[in-house]
Design goal:
disordered N terminus, single chain
Amino acid sequence: MKRLITTICLYELLVTGSAQAYRPIIDLGTLSGGQSWACSINDSGQIVGRADTTVSGYWRACLFDPTGGGANTNLGTIGGYEESWAWSINNSGQIVGYAHTPGYPRACLFDKTGGGANIDLGTLGGDTSSAYSINNNGQIVGSAETSTVWATACLFDHTGGGANINLGTLGGLYSEAQSINNSGQIVGWAYNSSGYSKPRACLFDKTGGGENIDLGTLGGDLGWAYSINDSDQIVGKAHNSSGNWRACLFDKTGGGDNIDLGTLGGDYSQALSINDSGQIVGNATNSSGNWHACLFDPTGGGANIDLNTLIDHSSGWILGAAYGINNNGWIVGQGINPDGYSHAYLLTPDPATLALLGLGGLTVLRRRRAQKRI
């Protein structure tokens, strides 16, 4: 109940009145190239993603300097010349993603110092793989090719010893694990027996026993889960009855009581991250059809907030997407900076807003208790 009240208060305060809810945007820069993306932030404020280099235009996995001072770390590859990407960082600073070997892109546990001691996490008998999430216990999930070349969701052996677990599908050929929480619950998407074009949001059987749960949709055919928190709340996107992708808070039982989180006035949205307080971020289209970073109303009531309305309007930034939110409410993502480049950014809440949030929580709690006594 405390988490629900806190989240509701945040929306009341932000919608009704904070002049500037976040401190000035921090441009996280690149690796001397043109573009960057921030994908994950841990509770210590360490941020990972990818950034362009000057080496033939390749991007590399990057540990960003959270001050925006430019001391970003190129996390390298696994001996390959091409690309790498960091998707997730846990509270111990362990970083996973994918990196090129001399032959194929492989799931990778990165050396956070940038010293190059990166670990190839292997596959399920095929050639390629990618890791998308690591929890605080060091458990890693993603997808990997099998010996028949079909890629399926995978729980990786963090040592790189090859004892990887095939998490299966929903009766089809493909699947992908996108997120794992600290109790080992795993979500992502999987094809069902209807064919190649029918991915469904999925809660995977973490033992690999095949008891996977189809999390359903919002009245359409397709669904995709991106993130699960430690309360087993699951967010992602799903088709509605019109066939439009909408941000979705999934019923973890698979019973179909899914919540359409709405948009910013347009037709499309997706929820990309949820923290342990139930705050949800992603992006959504506005009435002009433009994609903007969004803080979603978790009730589905439609009080979604365009993050561009909560920053200094003179900053020159346009925030296109929010990819991660930590338990302190810090948000990372990608936007267009004042120079017209697509750069990773960091938003941190303004302390004054947090102080108001505490007072607001008290107000709502008292109001609800009073209503119960009537």
